[in-house]
Design brief:
It is a single chain. 33% of the residues lie in helices and 31% in strands. The protein contains ten helices and 17 strands. The strands form three sheets. It has a six-stranded mixed β-sheet with strand order 4-3-2-1-5-6. A hairpin with a 5-residue loop joins strand 13 and strand 14. The longest helix has 26 residues, at 275-300.
Length: 362
């Protein structure tokens, strides 16, 4: 059976009929339908490669209904990478190797790989914090050099497992979020205790080490800037929106899953920085948003959208903290930016529509 030429499959992790982001996928389905496109949600583990069909769910008449679909011509990959991803990876790879199927974009593999790609760009490398793969030697060396460092999981999300370690008069202090995303603070007496803490905290997972950057407001509220860039209906990159995410003062990250808030970028910058610095920060962020997607795509292969997380330190320096190929959209709802909110939902369908025309034309 040939792939269904007018269908877009949203590939995600499903546990039975349970899957995340149902509200977002409902909007994608309804918008796709207006463009004559059939949109459905499926798990890569439910594909039957012999009959070229897949069990999935379609939103109609106000509810999600299970059904069996021909394999879609286009796939929007929303399978989040994490410890459970290994159960999905072989099926995802088999779909990626199917010549009749086009992925809107291929997911980025991890923070370290992205850092290595971006460090090849003369423009972008200037905005990357020094980054090493975690070993006790790199932890020790960076603490000697910077006195405060951050360790973060290579495949982590939502600020989970991000820890600041700093030297104190009595030894070291570790502050961050544990695997259950709960804030913690721990005093550590000596290098032997630090080695034990790092080994047990990172056990079985790969981590990165970076200098701790002062990415907070004068009153100590952590923040970052989420920039959403997406392909449009002509296949070109566009900036959909920019918003500041503010974290809890007890936390070192500004992730919304850790109980944060959001606000528009310009208003925030004008409150915290002098006009000249404000202007330079906005120009730099715009430059990064323009350069990064094209450069990363040249290194990595096709992408459909990126969430670029930008840090601004207390001196007004801009840093590229993280790049996510499966970005969330909550922040644009929280800042009440109706255009960004609408585009964040409609652009993937517009780009899918563009690819469909390309397939037919090509």
């Amino acid at each position: 059976m040939r792939a269904d030429a007018r269908s877009l499959g949203i590939m995600t992790r499903c546990q039975g009929s349970h899957f995340a982001d149902k509200g977002y996928y409902k909007k994608l389905t309804l918008y796709g339908r207006k463009h004559g496109m059939r949109v459905f949600v499926f798990s890569p583990r439910q594909v039957d490669f012999s009959s070229r069909t897949v069990k999935g769910f379609e939103y109609r008449k106000g509810a999600w209904h299970p059904d069996v679909f021909p394999l879609p011509a286009l796939i929007y990959d929303r399978c989040f990478v994490g410890p459970a991803y290994r159960h999905y990876k072989p099926f995802v790879e088999k779909l990626q190797n199917d010549r009749t199927i086009t992925f809107l974009g291929h997911g980025l593999s991890g923070k370290w790989q992205v850092h290595q790609m971006l460090s090849k760009s003369p423009l972008l490398s200037a905005y990357l914090p020094p980054t090493e793969i975690l070993s006790f030697a790199t932890v020790h060396d960076m603490l000697q050099k910077y006195r405060a460092i951050v360790i973060k999981p290579m495949a982590g999300t939502h600020g989970i497992g991000v820890v600041r370690i700093q030297k104190t008069k009595s030894g070291y202090e570790a502050t961050g979020r544990n695997r259950e995303n709960r804030p913690f603070r721990r005093q550590i007496r000596d290098p032997a205790g630090l080695k034990t803490f790092v080994a047990s905290f990172t056990s079985g997972r790969k981590f990165l080490v970076q200098p701790y950057l002062k990415l907070h407001t004068p009153d100590g509220t952590p923040f970052d800037v989420r920039v959403l860039v997406q392909k449009n209906g002509q296949g070109d990159w566009e900036t959909t929106g920019k918003a500041v995410r503010l974290g809890d003062k007890r936390s070192i990250t500004s992730n919304l899953h850790g109980g944060g808030k959001a606000e528009p970028l310009s208003a925030f910058l004008s409150r915290h920085f002098q006009p000249a610095v404000h202007s330079r920060i906005e120009q730099t962020i715009n430059q990064v948003a323009q350069e990064l997607p094209r450069f990363l795509e040249d290194c990595h292969g096709r992408l459909v959208e990126l969430g670029i997380d930008v840090g601004i330190d207390t001196e007004g320096n801009v840093w590229v903290i993280e790049v996510n190929s499966r970005p969330g959209r909550t922040v644009f709802r929280l800042i009440d930016d109706p255009v960004a909110k609408r585009h964040s939902i409609t652009q993937p369908v517009r780009y899918a529509h563009y690819l469909m025309k390309e397939r037919v034309g090509g």
